[in-house]
């Protein structure tokens, strides 16, 4: 590695490696064999070429904010850290695209273009630090993705280095690309297929007007019905978020923005567009809230007030961190009309497991983030929290939802994949992995509950109609 990178691009001392032992899912830790920090695509290609030739495993990592263990290192593998690759390579305002290195922080993209009246729409809660490359790997969402789409809807092209060191380009600067949609395959692939070294994203003009409503409801049922009625009424807010009572109290104690404390559910709905349209939509949403028995209604009348409404939601995760020594952040998605039922059953599970839970979620698209409160210093509590979380995810699938909305599978949900997929489904997914990485050296141990060699899935090379070494047993 030191033959490929400058001296400060290789970390192999015990103290330095400890910095990389986990990602955002801190319950799982593993010190890597070595960590490398390339600065160019050529260096990434050289590292992968070297590792491929010697059968060395590689785990890619961005800012390490993954909440599913997607960047968990391997004791016998190279951790390839992309945080030094954080340049903005090009901004084309006329065509509304920006070309970025993967290590740049999500929020830094908006900061770079906002002077010209543009922004980058996907905005995860960790946007101040999460990297664009990590967003691509996990297909991240965010508060404003209801109207403007998640990462896959905002990425136009990538430069991808394959495990053997070959560099390919998928997509480009156009909304429509020719050929198979391999770009759609890469976004959300969790570092299993290749390492992204360049990303081309859409940038959007800032809306003329944006206004938010802060709505309190006496019951979760009323809040859930409100959300369903807004969407069924043909209104697509820029964002629509919900918090339950524990999350409301934690957020208000943390940021002090005047959230109502006598409600069971708080919904923040934001409308944007031309001023006249925005006012009309605000009135419509307020009327729908009234029909669903909202007990508290506030409408922002300035940009400062709008941002204050969002401050508690954006800070909800650190705020909830003050309620218990540890919390386990879940990520599942359900049909909107099942929100009330699912939250009731989560409350029942909370009593069953004897662990508190605060719910913060993207109500508009049914993406739940239950935060399970526990104390890892108490014997058995971490295991109980994990089982509680697994039951929540099984519940999501049971009601017609999916295991993840934006955090990915990683190691956290790996063993739950058979709850959602048949063995045939999983086999076909792994065949895609084999097509890109036949030796299974990229991020092994993630996503697939049973890691099998490609030969076991029928990927055996036959030359001239004859199997090579037919006398050797096949496993």
TrEMBL record:
One Pfam family of this chain: FAD-oxidase_C
Name of the protein described by the UniProt record: FAD-binding protein
Organism listed in the record: Parasphingopyxis marina
Residue ranges of domain FAD-binding PCMH-type in the record: 28-206
InterPro entries xref list: FAD-bd_oxidored_4_C (IPR004113), FAD-bd_PCMH (IPR016166), FAD-bd_PCMH-like_sf (IPR036318), FAD-bd_PCMH_sub2 (IPR016169), FAD-linked_Oxase-like_C (IPR016164), FAD-linked_OxidoTrans_Type4 (IPR051914), Oxid_FAD_bind_N (IPR006094), Vanillyl_alc_oxidase_C-sub2 (IPR016171)
UniProt keyword Oxidoreductase, yes or no: yes
Keywords assigned by UniProt, alphabetized: FAD, Flavoprotein, Oxidoreductase
GO MF annotations in UniProt: FAD binding; oxidoreductase activity
PROSITE patterns referenced in this protein's UniProt entry, alphabetically: FAD_PCMH
Organism placement in taxonomy: Bacteria, Pseudomonadati, Pseudomonadota, Alphaproteobacteria, Sphingomonadales
Cofactor: FAD
